[in-house]
Design brief:
alpha+beta; 4 helices; 6 strands; 31% strand
Length: 144
Amino acid sequence: MKFPSGLEFCLAALALAAACSAPGLTRRALAGDMAIVREGRYQGTLRIKDGDQKTVEKVEPLRRQIEEDPGFLRQVGEKYFSIPAVSDFRYKYVAEDSVAKRLVLRYFASDPHPIIYAGWQLLFEFSEPNMSLVQVLATEVPLE
């Protein structure tokens, strides 16, 4: 069995790190006409995950990709809704669909003058274990 030299090992490690942390993977998946963004609610059963270390390690790189451009979340939400300039999307939680093997990140922007709706939500749905973006669901959230 031949082991890689120190240089080969370092180059392979750098290539792997670059592939895993490449900025904009989520944005590139949404590029163009944003066909991956749909209006609607998640159809499966979600269970909110707590902040255990394993979940944090999965979610942090996804959040960095989604949040790297401050206007990106607004752009996604405005595909379907007119969102006031004072409303910003903020990360709320991560949920898991263990049957469909999905991880869903929820972002919410509140309506500054709610009458019918409290605001708008974006659900970023990722397939496990490879964490590829499946779809983004946008919807208005009614007042309760």
